């Protein structure tokens, strides 16, 4: 069957599509208060979500970008809360510095421990991650319970992440977990409200890894 459409794309070249998208984002976003260091993260989050409200809601600890780049360049692990985040992050850009992208939520021991304690796998996965990933970047896009557990462990001095990208999406505890993260005096990237998700966490980490590679 022959399908016909009058619509013709501006370009079919991937690099040109991305560049044009970024131009449109900058034009439509207009004036903002983000620093030049923070803006690439905002830009990629909007690019991934097509959501300017979400982009404007991003909140950065003053040392967030610096800490994220430093962690990547030091070969620190990136811990993803779920497989969707792990898959979306550009592993080659992390691995070129000696790092890795890991997810623990489906590990057999994590599932067994969560069942034994009658709690979420997300919580147990964070407890496992902190034992293996000192100074890691935590990319949390889906599980507020993972973010709240990480915050608790930071407050108790047990967890020492290099950066927390805490942007879980949802209705139960998502906004509240991000509010708690924003109170910490350690490097973080988060946003206000219920919006977020895997694409947002992925976009933030990928923006950082691109900046890390450029600072070689």
Topology:
Blueprint: H1 14-29, H2 39-49, H3 52-56, E1 58-60, H4 64-73, E2 78-80, H5 83-88, H6 91-95, E3 101-103, H7 108-117, H8 121-132, E4 137-140, H9 144-155, E5 163-166, H10 174-181, E6 188-191, H11 198-214
Parallel strand pairs: 2-3, 2-4, 4-5, 5-6
Antiparallel strand pairs: 1-6
Helix pairs in contact: 1-2, 2-11, 4-11, 7-8, 8-9, 9-10
Walk me through this protein's architecture.
The protein is an alpha/beta fold and 216 residues long. 52% of the residues lie in helices and 10% in strands. It contains eleven helices and six strands. It has helices at residues 14-29, 39-49, 52-56, 64-73, 83-88, 91-95, 108-117, 121-132, 144-155, 174-181, 198-214; strands at residues 58-60, 78-80, 101-103, 137-140, 163-166, 188-191. Strands 1-6-5-4-2-3 form a six-stranded mixed β-sheet, with helices on both faces. The radius of gyration is 18 Å and the shape is globular. The mean pLDDT is 93. Belongs to the CobH/CbiC family. Residues 16-209 form the Cobalamin biosynthesis precorrin-8X methylmutase CobH/CbiC domain. Pathway: Cofactor biosynthesis; adenosylcobalamin biosynthesis.
